[in-house]
Every structure is written in C-alpha cells, then in structure tokens.
Amino acid sequence: MSAITGIVGGMTYSIVAEGLVKRFGETVALAGVDLEVRTGSVFGLLGPNGAGKTTAVRILATLVRPDAGHATVGGYDVVASAHQVRQLIGLAGQYASVDETLTGLENLLLIGRLVGQSRSAARHRARELLADFRLDDAAGRAVKTYSGGMRRRLDLAASLVSRPRVLYLDEPTTGLDPLSRSEMWDIIRGLTASGVTVLLTTQYLDEADQLAGEIVVVDHGRVIATGTPAELKARTGARFLAVTPARPADLPAVVSIVGMLTQATPTVSDATVTAPLADSAVLPAVVRHLDDAGVEVGELSLRGSSLDEVFLSLTGHRARDESGSESGSASGSGHADQGELRAVSERSAR
Amino acid sequence: MSIAVETTARPLRVRVSAVEGVRQTCSLAWRTLVQIKHSPFELLDFTVQPVMFVLLFTYVFGGAIAGSPHQYLTFALPGIIVQNALFTTLNTGVGLSTDLEKGFFDRLRALPIARFSPLAGRIVADVVKQAWSIAMLLIVGAILGFRVGTGPPSVLAAFALLLVSTLAVSWPIVLVAMLAAKPEKVQVFGFIVLFPLTFTSDAFVRTASMPGWLQAWAKVNPVSLLSDAARGLLVSGPVTGPALASLLYALGFTVVFAPLAVRALRRRV
C-alpha cells in the first residue's frame, strides 16, 4: 500500500497538492493552492462561485494541467501518471454528467464496459448500484425523464462503477431541493463509512459542516482558512444570538446581559442586539437574566453562521462581492441577515 | 444506507493496450447507436428525411428537369445519396459538441480509457449510420423504379467510396464543433456551408444550363466528383477519373483538417 499512497509525517494522504496555479487568459483561477487530504477522510473545499474549486477538482481529476505546482493522487502524479490516477478516481458533480438519452442502466453498463468489466460483471455492478441508489424502478427509463435528485444519484452511481478509492464530488447538491439534498447527504455519509476518500466542493457551509472532517476555504484562487468545522466555527462564531427587546429603552440592558453571557462584544442595529454564540447552552441563561432584569423580549433567535459570515470574518469582504472591497466589515450583524437571505434566495433560484 | 464501494487493491496499469482501445471504441460506438433507440427524432433525421428528399425531388422536380420522374430518379439518386451522406456528417459534430457541453466528455476523459476512443467511437457509429442511410436510399429508390446498372462489386465500391469520403468530411465538421460553443451553431454552420456546396454541383441537375462561372466551379466541386463516381458505380458512366479525384479530395481533407480538429479538441477540453 505504501507504494501507492503519499506518506507525509507519518500520516497517509490520498491527495497531496502543492502550489497549484491555473490561469485562463487573464483570469487566475488558482493562485497557488496546497491541499492534503487524509486517506479515508471527507475533505471539504468551501468557497463561493468562481473561487477556483472546480478548477482544483479538474486538475486532480487529470482533466486540466496546472500551469505551476504539482499534485499526486494515491502517490501518482496527476500529469505524468494520469492513466494510473484515472484508475483510482471517480468523478461526480456539476460538470461530469451522464448521457441523458440513454437509460440509467445503459449509462452504468457503458462505464463498466469502458473500465474493463466483463459484460456480466458490468451488469451485476450496474444492478447493484441502481438498487443502492433506489433507481431500480427507473433503470429502464431515459435519464432525461429523471428528476434532479435522481439524476444526481445516477451521476454518483456512475462515478462508483469502477470502485474508486478517491471520489471527487463537485457541488453534489447545488440546485437540489431540500429533500433531495438531505437524501444526497445521507448517501455521501454512507460512502464515507466504506472507506473511500472524498473530496467535496461546496458553496454551503452547512453542507461542509454536515459531511466534512476537514475544510479548506478558498477565495479568489487562494486558500484562506483550513481546519475542522469546529475550528472554523470557533473562529467565526458558530452561531449568532439575536435579541430584540420590546422596548428600545432596554437596549443597553440587553447589550450588557448578552455581552456578559456570550463573552463577546455585541453589536446593535435595527434595535436588535447580536453576538456570536459559541455554546448554545448559554441560551437559557440569557432568557433567565433578561427576565430577572425585567426586559420584555420582542424577539429572540439563534442562527447558524452563513457562508457570508464565515467569509466576512475570514476575509473582511463578502463571499459574493464582485469588487472584493473591504468596506462595511465593521457591523457584521446587520449585514449577516441580508447575507443569509441572499444565500437562501440564490439557492432557491437555481 | 449502505453502498457497495469496497475498494480492492489492484495493480494499476501504465497504459491502455491497442486491443483495449479498440474495445472501448466499440463500447462508445454502441452508446451512440443505442441513443437512436431512445431518440425517435434522430431516426427521423437519417431515415425519413432522405426518403422525403427522394420523393420530393423525383415527383416535384423530376418531370420538369429530366422529362419524367423515372428518368430523373436514375440521374439524381446517386446525387441525393451523396448530399444525404454529407449532411449526415453533421451528426458527428453535433453529437460531439453536445457531449462537450453537457459534461459527458469530461466523464469519459476522467476514465482510464484510450484518449482516442471517445472521438473514434463516435466516428465509427456515424459510419454505421451512414451505411444504413445509403442502404435506405437505395431500397426506396428501387421501390420507386431505380435500377442498379452495375453489379454487386460496384455497389460495394460505391459504399466504400462514400464512407471514406464522409469520414474525411467529418474532420472539418469536428473542427467546427470544437470551435463553436453550442451544438446548434454546428448545425447552422453546416447548413450554411453544405447547402450551397451540394447545390452548386451536378448532384441534382446537369451543369449545362448553369452560367459559365458556376459551371467552372461545379466541375471541380468535390460534391460533383463524388456524385459522378457514385453514378458511375451505381448506374453507368466513367468511374476511375471521378473516383480518384474524390479519393484525392478525401485525402486532402483528412491531411489538413484531422490534425487541426484533434488539436482543437485537446485545447477545448
């Protein structure tokens, strides 16, 4: 095994990338990205549209050559030993699709045959995967009649035909409705339990949080943060507590109570006091203290930090800010609401 | 949910053998042919459309051009076969462009398969479709009264010449498919080029009534040469001259456009 895996500092890594650079004309898609993905782990590549996530995956899947830097998968260089790398990987996601005019079964059969399975082995594998992904009823139907969720499941099944050791999932749930999305999450969790190394790209913090053991945040082709979901949340404030007193006159009292209990400096805007909350167990104490102080609460809520909030705290600019300007980073809470709303509406618009 | 993805440690190959490459090409050709089963429109494209052309040309123009539909059919069927074969090559470009646009090509390229097999598979499938189309036209022609004036070896030679020629023509089409962003554009470009090309030849009419400058072009138009060769092989008339000229054209198209197309494909993906 050691011959085909990168061993760094006593740990086994399936994917090691150093200083990946890729330009498309004037655009710099990757400006020097390092990645180390531990064998058997789920690794999340988190960033907004255009951050360079897909380019990174395409390089690691041997589809694009890097302009500088190098990467190995299972110890094989993605440029010099592309053929070996292709035998180790599976690719699923927004840009690697199935043939819409064929049936689900035919798609899987085709890939099985292409990777060298015998006719009967390919059929057996296809049936097995169709059953696993609850597509057996639709096996004989053309893919163009499938729903979005079914199509993604088939896409994922297609990437698993060859039993890859390393799986790339490029935005596996982008554009899916909430139900299909959580269904996809269950499937991905099931995969990781079987020991496959997964590299997942996503625009959604909650998705990375749900699935990945380690997250790298990329922006403008650069890695801007690395860590476990818990570490990233600790840096950005896991959740935000927002309290709106019924009477604006109570605002100073609310600020002092919230500040004391969350041990953070609350911000005030639109008569709402907001503070990052590391531990949600503090919540009952907040309620009790407000009650003791005789503050009548108009509204009290707890929100997860959105991708925008993560970006705001990591980079000082908004995730989807085209200009990349650093303005308006001072009052995080008022913007955060809009950011979250925007993220939700963008999601549903797809 | 448990999913069977147990990975097995297997020895990795360094390259694809030629035999495997051919097998992969066949699998991909099968895929393109199976598409027809699910896409009745495509069947219309290369079955009903040519038949319709034969019927329209024979009964609408036939009498006016050649005195009687039957006489015209004898003259025009080889030309219609050539025209149809040229238009069928658009399938290669449109299909390839669709695969690129939808991302299916990326899936193939991320598989450990021979680099040439996706393109080769499509071309092989399209040659099969071509042969089918030509056979359809000959059968419909025979029903309407077209009689082969030569023997089976000549008919086979006509098939071979047409397939070689369309294979050569598919290279510039592949190039267009690589340069055009959308499949529809390939279709439009093909029509803009192929329509005038086929009509400024002797595929449908004798060139005698054309203006002098047009006659001069029609004489060297590869569509004329291929139509003449097909006529010679299927009905009667000189074969060697037009057939050799057609093969030279095919060679020229391949030498010029195949490297350009392959280079454009490498760049695009």
Keyphrases for this structure?
heterodimer; A: alpha/beta; six-stranded mixed β-sheet; five-stranded antiparallel β-sheet; B: 269 residues; 10 helices; disordered N terminus
Question: Please, could you describe this protein's structure?
Answer:
The complex is a heterodimer of chains A (350) and B (269). Chain A has 350 residues and is of the alpha/beta class. Helices cover 38% and strands 27% of the residues of chain A. Chain A has 12 helices and 15 strands. Chain A has helices at 53-60, 82-88, 104-114, 119-132, 148-160, 178-193, 205-211, 229-236, 251-262, 282-292, 307-315, 332-349; strands at 6-8, 11-24, 27-38, 42-46, 68-73, 76-77, 89-93, 166-170, 197-202, 214-219, 222-227, 239-245, 267-269, 272-277, 297-304. In chain A, the strands form 3 sheets. A 6-stranded mixed β-sheet of chain A has the order 7-8-9-4-10-11, with helices on both faces. In chain A, a hairpin with a 2-residue loop joins strand 1 and strand 2. Chain B is mainly alpha-helical and 269 residues long. The longest helix of chain B has 34 residues, at 69-102. Chain B is elongated and about 70 Å long.
